[in-house]
Batch of 2 targets.
Target 1
Amino acid sequence: MAETAAGASQALDYIKGRIEKARRRFGPPPESVELVAVSKTFPADQVRPFLVAGQLVFGENRVQEAKEKWPGLRAEFPGLSLHLIGPLQTNKVREAVALFDVIETVDRDKLAKALGEEMARTGRRLPCFVQVNIGGEEQKAGIAVSETADFVGRCRSDYGLNVVGLMCIPPDGQPPGPYFAHLVQLARDCAVEKLSMGMSGDFETAIAMGATHVRVGSALFGRRFTPEPA
Ligand SMILES: *Cc1c(COP(=O)(O)O)cnc(C)c1O
């Protein structure tokens, strides 16, 4: 675990090296791959060294945790960008729009409408990703594959959201490649450019398929001991 700036720097260099290698190895390479450092469950003191080491893009999956952790860090590092990568309840939309810079988990009309209204009210028109339930898993968040194109259309025209891309989490225990490839195809159908896919275990595969954003947690910060809420 990287608890010092030097340790964080080393962990970052290692992951960025792997990202860069994957980007060059497979063609046509995405222009650039954004590393979203997933800091959920890690306290501010363990995140700060990564900011000191130059990492400015982070992901959190819970509004409440972000609210406790990030305003202080943001005061120290005004250039940082925070992505919401976990499920969002409609009653937390106001806080989420205030706290985050990118919303990656737009997956239903009620949420999209609430986000659109809050962004219009505050003038914070954040880039959004539509989360797709790429494996068609009953318990998983995300819009159904067959509804994605229509939903992206509604997000844009009815709710005024700035949809920049698609995001997915493939099913556990299966090769992720075909799911990533499917998301790429869907993104083409929806005319969105960005693809948030790939985590610690599979980000190189995701980059090979065309990921523009990879969400890497444990490979950077170490193992998470706190159980994650669903
Ligand atoms: C926790 C989480 C990640 C990071 O997972 P690691 O396997 O630790 O890299 C990425 N995306 C989402 C949506 C997550 O909840």
Target 2
Amino acid sequence: MAADSHCPYCALQCAMTLTPDPLAATPVTVAGRAFPTNRGGLCKKGWTSAELLRTPDRLTVPLVRRDGELRPATWDDALGMIAERLAALRREHGADAVGVFGGGGLTNEKAYVLGKFARLALGTSRIDYNGRFCMSSAAAAGNRAFGVDRGMPFPVTDLDDADTILLLGSNVAATMPPFLGHLSGARAAGGFIVVDPRRSQTAQLTADGAGIHLQPAPGTDLVLLLGLLHVVLADGLADTAYLEARTTGFDAVRRSVAGWWPERVQEHTGVPVGQLRVVARRLARGRGTFILTGRGVEQHVDGTDTATAAINLALALGLVGRPGSGYGTLTGQGNGQGGREHGQKCDQLPGYRKITDPAARAAVAAVWGVDPAVIPGPGVPAVELLGMLGQRPDGVRALLVHGSNVVVSGPDAGAIRSGLEALDLLVVCDFVLSETAELADVVLPVTQWAEEEGTMTNLEGRVLRRRRALDPPPGVRSELDILADLAHRLNAPSTWPTDPAEVFDELARASAGGVADYSGLSHAVLDAQAEIGEAAHWPYPAGSTGTPRLFLDRFGHDDGRARLVAVRARELTTGRRPGELTLITGRLLEHYQSGAQTRRVPELVTAQPEVRAELHPATAARLGIADGDRVVVGNSRGAVTARALLSTGMRLDTVFLPFHFAGRQCANLLTEAAVDPISAMPEFKRTAVTVRPAVEEEAA
Ligand SMILES: Nc1nc2c(c(=O)[nH]1)N[C@H]1C(S)=C(S)[C@@H](COP(=O)(O)OP(=O)(O)OC[C@H]3O[C@@H](n4cnc5c(=O)[nH]c(N)nc54)[C@H](O)[C@@H]3O)O[C@H]1N2
Ligand SMILES: Nc1nc2c(c(=O)[nH]1)N[C@H]1C(S)=C(S)[C@@H](COP(=O)(O)OP(=O)(O)OC[C@H]3O[C@@H](n4cnc5c(=O)[nH]c(N)nc54)[C@H](O)[C@@H]3O)O[C@H]1N2
Ligand code: SF4
Ligand SMILES: [Mo]
């Protein structure tokens, strides 16, 4: 059964055809398929994705910890034990003693059922997910400015014709390689502008007249953006007619950037005045201009305000909702977009509705067949939830994890490990024994992407079909099945379908009338669209044909206008003591996230076997470090041992570590659990560390 499906990894959701082949080394072969985002192309991770289907350490039987060891158990024993202990904890300590942690890689169907399960079967408010680490700042800024958060409010192919693209804090050359095809127009026109403290693979694409690379100090993008808007206004480049007709709040924003003249911006960011002026003019004069943000500017304690400053700039230039121009953020995980629309977020119900909104509660309760009063109120966001693990008396005593490897990917990973170890019960659903699953009391083996049906919503808000190409190994169950079984054992109200198409229909009803309205969609509608290129962008209310481009006539707020919001830069001390460097963390092409999946694919491990700390040669020389030496990157929270990789693309004051590795190589041993006050996004990209050569026993 050859199946047209999409890649299991990132939000570009490259299209692929999976063909079972009994003679091949993998159970299915993967071929790229024509589709707007990837045009038939795939990256290395996509090409090798089938290797994980029958990896030797694939989990195929439930594991339960006995006498300190994870040992095989029957499904009935494992689920019976989980239900019994969850019920007991709830009785003794209240429903909020149980927490749920979801993931942006889950299909829409799984994300929806997980949110419903937490609220109805567990009665807990304490559910959140790893999208909090990923999209939350851009989401908060989008909601605040536009009243809607859809990463890209336009199809990616709109970028193709632009002659100017400002890309802030995103390394698409490594994180979404086929996306580069959409940048070729801007590069050919000399208008590709990249903002990154590193000369990343993407920044290198500005060479040879293709554009400009601005290399600010980490965490100073907010000042840079205030400075760009200052120049736009000072030089009379703003679109005043647009501001007048389509926005509110401009006056306060104008006042807020008045003090950010270019020389002052240069002093704080290191970006030369001349570059600032050239970029501001280019943005204003481009015929087709886009401003795009990625995690580099969003994963900071001021990430929401920084994304807001980027939006303010885009609004002042009249780009948003104008055909051929726009603002967007590059959603990260495969279903990072859909994952935040259907109820995994602590403050949300399906359809991207607020859990505090009485009308939303009533609508969803009606679909679930329950009294609205049984739906708990808002819970706490991810970092706070993880900080409550094992805390007494009101903390979280049991945690269910679906689609995240938090002990590697969460900030201050050492503290997360302690929290997980202090739990009464940790249950992890996964298809491999991730580092988080290794700590669990019960591990439940689940299906993988090529073995299941469902939907994903990609970075353009396009709803796609994931299709089954082969049967799962015997013993493995789907999460829909597991959650329904547990719901029954816990005597939960409502019904618990396990067929993904049926779950989707319920999700569609529950989303009706919400911001992310899927009520006109079903698996059948999506399947019928295969011929026209899978073009279902939400909102897609019943009777509509979807919304490829948002904001053409109005924004999501009641008055139809976008809001410019004045934001302020934080106190600009570097916070570094003498001898300290700024650690920035990010990604390598070959590995995905915590690496739980890609560290099991031989070809990818051979290409990137271990963590390497990127340093400028002059910085390394000062510290007595040569290329390839073992070094220790450390601070008060922990220490990482890495091999040094010298690169003139680094600033003198920074060091870069990818966060894909575990154990002593885990970058998040160093990051801090400090969060953005609006989005609750942790600070992943600006951490004070020291770097020194490793002594002999550390190097071993
Ligand atoms: N290969 C691969 N691809 C992936 C993923 C993966 O793990 N591996 N993950 C997917 C997911 S979930 C996501 S969210 C996306 C993320 O995709 P990106 O946002 O492209 O990923 P990052 O590497 O985290 O960060 C991008 C860049 O931000 C820069 N940066 C760091 N600090 C700052 C700063 O203060 N200012 C600015 N302007 N830039 C800064 C880094 O140097 C880096 O080059 O990728 C998706 N695709
Ligand atoms: N220092 C630093 N830390 C970061 C970041 C950074 O830039 N720097 N980026 C952050 C970002 S943007 C993100 S998105 C997070 C991601 O980090 P994580 O949340 O850890 O994401 P993954 O590594 O993708 O973990 C997914 C796990 O779920 C499993 N899995 C995959 N699909 C399914 C499924 O359908 N069901 C179940 N039950 N399991 C499944 C996989 O095998 C894997 O073990 O990391 C964040 N952490
Ligand atoms: S770019 Fe993303 S979706 Fe495309 S093949 Fe690579 S990992 Fe998969
Ligand atoms: Mo992400």
